[in-house]
Amino acid sequence: MTTPSMEDYIEQIYLLIETKGYARVSDIAESLNVHPSSVTKMVQKLDKDAYLKYEKYRGLILTSKGHKIGKRLVYRHDLLEQFLEIIGVEQEKIYEDVEGIEHHLSWNSIDRIGDLVQFFEEDKTRIQGLRKVQQNNEE
């Protein structure tokens, strides 16, 4: 069982490895805006729980379990951003809102949001219809 904090670390490590090819404690600390000592403690916990393999001064790699969860967490984050954009949330609020809700939704809710995003993406006139409803409600 992962905590929201563990999920944030796994997601960030996954993203760093995908973009840079590696994830160092200093990179993780910078991207999460935390102290390197906090990262080291969490990385050691994630290593103990078999989400990654960590060797002091050598770096870390995600295990297959960590990679799978990291990929799913990134998907969840991206899907929620897409959903909030579709429903018309102001662009500058989307990231903060996703950070606030992503850990509080069940995977069943995420799947249903995915269905809704797909529904809107399959026919762009549906988004236009939603915008008309929103416009009418604002008047």
From TrEMBL:
Entry-linked SUPFAM superfamilies: Iron-dependent repressor protein, dimerization domain, Winged helix' DNA-binding domain
Record's keyword terms, sorted: Activator, Cytoplasm, DNA-binding, Manganese, Metal-binding, Repressor, Transcription, Transcription regulation
Classification via SMART domains: HTH_DTXR
Gene Ontology MF annotations: DNA binding; DNA-binding transcription factor activity; manganese ion binding; protein dimerization activity
Binding-site residues, Mn(2+) 2: E11, H77, E99, E102
Regulation: DNA binding is strongly activated by Mn(2+).
Family: Belongs to the DtxR/MntR family.
Subunit structure of this chain's protein: Homodimer.
PANTHER family: IRON (METAL) DEPENDENT REPRESSOR, DTXR FAMILY (PTHR33238), TRANSCRIPTIONAL REGULATOR MNTR (PTHR33238:SF11)
Protein name in UniProt: HTH-type transcriptional regulator MntR
Species the sequence originates in: Terrihalobacillus insolitus
